[in-house]
Design a protein that fits this description.
The chain has 182 residues and is an alpha+beta fold. It has three domains: 17-74, Arc Repressor Mutant, subunit A, CATH 1.10.10.200; 83-133, 2-Layer Sandwich (Alpha-Beta Plaits); 138-180, YebC, transcriptional regulation domain (Alpha-Beta Plaits, 2-Layer Sandwich). The protein has helices at 6-39, 47-58, 63-74, 106-119, 149-159, 177-180, and strands at residues 83-90, 96-103, 123-124, 137-143, 163-167, 170-176. The protein has a three-stranded antiparallel sheet. A three-stranded antiparallel sheet has the order 4-6-5. Strand 1 (83-90) and strand 2 (96-103) form a beta hairpin. Helix 1 runs antiparallel to helix 2 (47-58) and helix 1 (6-39) runs parallel beside helix 3 (63-74). The model has no long low-confidence stretch (mean pLDDT 87).
Length: 182
Amino acid sequence: MSGHSKWATIKRKKAVTDARRGKIFTQIIKEITIAAKMGGSNPDGNSRLRLAIDKAKASNMPADNIKRAIQKGTGELPGVNYEDAIYEAYGPGGVAIIIETVTDNKNRTISDIRHVLERNHGKIATTGAVSFQFHKKGIILVPRAAISEDELLSVILDAGADDMKTEGDVYSIVSSLKILKR
């Protein structure tokens, strides 16, 4: 026994757990707000929002918090304006890096990124200096039991997918992001 009251021990443990939950909730709220801002408040038509809501429910976030985050994203409630920012950089040894962030203050974010890169022998690059080396692709996983390989192949060829592989019990389809947004 520590010689202190039981309540003091419980209070310290609860403070640590609450701080962890609060940090997770803040990250998820940012994701929900941005997803609602980009694709609307309907999770059926916004896969990014649906994923963020599922993540929130898995973390036991109250439904009221989820609803408020969606309303902030659609502009129904005032709140912090989060936005996506993409930075290009070179890391140690000249490794090309693309950094995608979500921020409410771009000046603070670029300053933090620059600080981390400089401490680790990297540097910020100008826009377009790194991005030409990367291609954004989407990967769709389809269970093999859902459809035959020939049927799926004809569907993805009509849609314009780049590649399809059979990996274990799923089909892995690689495509450009333009096809995924249809």
